[in-house]
Amino acid sequence: MRAIVVVDKARGTAGMKLEERPEPRAAINDVVVQVFASGFVGTELEWPSTWTDRLDRDRTPCIPGHEVAGVVTALGYGTTGLSVGQRVFGIADWYRDGTLAEYVAIEARNLASLPGDVDFTVGASLPISGLTAWQGLFEHGRLRAGQRILVHGAAGAVGAMVTQLAREVGAHVIGSGRTAARHAALDFGANEFVDLDTDRLEDVGAVDLVFDVIGGDIGKRSAGLVRAGGVLVSIVGPPAARPTDGLAVDFVVEADRAQLTQIVQRVRTDDCGPTSAPSRRSTTPSLPSTRLSDGRGR
Ligand SMILES: NC(=O)c1ccc[n+]([C@@H]2O[C@H](COP(=O)([O-])OP(=O)(O)OC[C@H]3O[C@@H](n4cnc5c(N)ncnc54)[C@H](OP(=O)(O)O)[C@@H]3O)[C@@H](O)[C@H]2O)c1
Which of 59, 164, 194, 252 is deepest in the core (most CB within 10 A)? Predict the structure, then answer.
């Protein structure tokens, strides 16, 4: 098969090459997916997991890319829940060859069914930002209707999803970003916008939840805004400061079929009614299905 490979961390994306690679084989509980669309994150080549396996052994040449939408072409021994020919989307393992290839092997549990009315390109744009938003809001942040949430980078890929889902659940959303991000953040549903170039962050007042995609000084100052019992959720590593009387959580997104199913319902072209998708986790709210779009304009 053809695949994009990297061999030299120092060269970054300039070192990416299109090569012939062996087709992957499906291990126990895996499927092989023929890739129709793939998502690549710009910072991937800096992640240690792009270059090693779980025992920290070099695995170059590596195939990057972790988001995928495509069609199942093979099942591994014992694999259940998906079938050959099924349209799927999801996240490939951080430590295995990824999705910038014609075929990828993935654990079946990391994938969900992609409805026929959702394009492959849309499907491949959803998993990382959608799941990160979902897990940060509802599992780690335990967001509830009526709470005030500060969403940093509200016009970006993750922030746009966070903003839309937080509004959907009935929270009051304060989006942040640079001056140029104001309109996009408000369009995604933010009730207010804090311009980090010109406004004073501290004037936001107390919030129940901070969703931080920026970190650094912004993350540090945001800890002071979290009211008693609130949560600072960071997706950019451990926060430099913690709320005085609240929680600080940093996490890495995980694949989750039930959550992927909930998320994709929100971009369907022919179904904006309530979703019947099952929820495996007690912290996952049952939300009405509305239209989601990502920070990349889809
Ligand atoms: N832990 C996890 O599981 C996880 C999952 C997904 C993403 N991430 C990480 O989360 C971060 C955000 O990801 P993303 O995909 O949402 O990125 P993105 O699409 O680039 O969005 C980030 C947004 O924040 C804004 N921003 C960044 N620094 C800013 C600053 N100092 N002042 C004002 N606005 C600022 C950006 O504006 P500009 O474009 O103008 O800079 C952009 O709108 C990345 O570091 C990514 O690696 C972590």
Answer: 164
